[in-house]
């Protein structure tokens, strides 16, 4: 079941990206579409790098005071995802990557991710 979802995502996301690029190019032209795509990737890469450094500093600080901060692992996973989205050219992944670098959104998504993962583990191992 998971394999089917991944295949669907790997087929659907590039198709959506392509449609969005064509629609954007229709309204603003190809030059501006390419320029906006490159600018969003550069901005996202800068924000992701900056967010990663601040996240890592927070992890080191909490680690020295309280021990390993397991609750920060979800945020790290979201940041790695944001960085992967920044490498992928396109408006959809660019917007998602930039959103995932914002601390408030990243923390909310991280909480949802951790809750989902813990529910899946609990139901899988303790039925």
Q: Specify the helix fraction band.
A: over 70%
Task: Please work out how many helical segments DSSP would assign.
Answer: 5
Shape: flat
Largest sheet: none
Distance between the termini: 19 Å
- Rg computed from alpha carbons, rounded to a whole number of angstroms: 18 Å
Task: Report the count of strand segments.
Answer: 0
What is the ordering of alpha helices and beta strands?
HHHHH
What are the segments in which pLDDT stays under 50 over at least 5 consecutive residues?
A: none
Alpha-beta content class: mainly alpha
Structurally, the number of domains stands at: 1
Task: Please indicate the percent range of residues in DSSP E strands (runs of 2 or more).
Answer: under 5%
Mean pLDDT: 86
């Amino acid at each position: 079941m998971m394999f089917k979802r991944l295949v669907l995502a790997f087929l659907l996301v590039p198709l959506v990206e392509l449609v969005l690029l064509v629609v954007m190019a229709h309204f603003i032209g190809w030059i501006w579409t390419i320029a906006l795509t490159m600018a969003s990737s550069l901005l996202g890469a800068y924000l992701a790098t900056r967010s990663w450094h601040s996240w890592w500093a927070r992890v080191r600080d909490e680690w020295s005071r309280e021990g390993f901060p397991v609750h920060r692992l979800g945020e790290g996973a979201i940041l790695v995802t944001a960085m992967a989205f920044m490498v992928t050219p396109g408006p959809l992944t660019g917007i998602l990557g930039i959103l995932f670098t914002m601390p408030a959104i990243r923390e909310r998504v991280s909480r949802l991710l951790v809750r989902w993962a813990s529910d899946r583990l609990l139901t899988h191992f303790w039925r």
